[in-house]
Amino acid sequence: MxxxxxxxxxxxxxxxxxxxxxxxxxxxxxxELRKQIDLQIEFFTNYPDVNYRQxxxxxxxxxxxxxxxxxxxPEHFDFKNCVYFGRHFAYPSLVKIGHTSNLKKRVASLExxxxxxxxxxxxxxxxxxxAKLEKYLHIYFAYCRKQGExxxxxxxxxxxxxxFDKSKxxxxxxxxx
Length: 177
Known about the structure:
globular; 5 helices; 3-stranded antiparallel beta sheet; disordered N terminus; 9 strands
């Protein structure tokens, strides 16, 4: 007898239903996504302008972070495929969120574009999915975007504190430090 399959994609989780309505999926991943959404709602209570799109983006973001390596204040810039959080001394209250396949070249470019003023890297996230990660960071922080890839620093530093806080590590997934 031929089985009928219905495929529904929810981010990277694939749910397959057969004729008997049996669900074969990663239920644990969906439960984890729900936990992350709840954490996002809790985190964003301090920021009333946030919408649910940003909360969902935050949950997906934390799933992406599980597969990434996060480094606070890197000592060198010899990193490939990463998202960077940086500050330019010309814009002291803003943080730039960008992604690059070559951090050393990108920092040099940012400094030369702005009259050779030093660009400080606050943190980086190394991931093969750096473009996707940056996209979700931009959605996540849309409420505090000032211009282009530049965001108010307080929510960014709150977020970075959250992912670097050892006591919260297990609640947001396994983040490699």
